[in-house]
């Protein structure tokens, strides 16, 4: 009898540990950090708009394709030697929020935890052009 209770307790404790471990990882859809508060509530004002996507295509091909590749897969020629490598933007579009993308394109990778050669674009591209390129990514990188 004592043995049975002991084993039941062990099984209960083990399944509790297993359940909490599974629950923890299942709840996480992305390992990306949250954008800082000044970016947290941003949403794409041009979402789904073809003219914004067309303008974004020009921005993308001039500034991003060299590293991220024409199709966004992270396989551009200028990115081959980089560590970390350029992100697969199809994954980014599928997994990350618009606020996250706007933040990362604006601020780049010259900060923790990224420490990458992703350039900061906020001094080069207007806010509208950053949203245009996000619209292009959303409508084409699937
Ligand atoms: C010099 C190469 C280079 C260029 C040019 C470049 N990137 Fe990046 N980018 C990177 C690298 C490397 C990473 C991965 C490391 C990181 O997240 O900082 C990255 C990451 C990103 C991310 C975050 C992806 C994620 O899933 O977390 C986004 C969004 C992004 N780039 C968009 C762009 C856009 C849009 C442009 C053009 C305006 C651009 N990048 C131009 C190198 C580049």
From TrEMBL:
Pfam families: Cytochrome_CBB3. The keyword Metal-binding applies. Residues 27-50 are annotated as: Disordered. Residues 51-141 form the Cytochrome c domain. Keywords: Electron transport, Heme, Iron, Metal-binding, Signal, Transport. Gene3D superfamilies: Cytochrome c-like domain. InterPro entries: Cyt_c-like_dom, Cyt_c-like_dom_sf, Cyt_C_IC, Cytochrome_c-type_DH. GO terms for molecular function: electron transfer activity; heme binding; iron ion binding. Residues 1-26 form the signal peptide. The keyword Oxidoreductase does not apply. This is Cytochrome c, mono-and diheme variants. It comes from Longilinea arvoryzae.
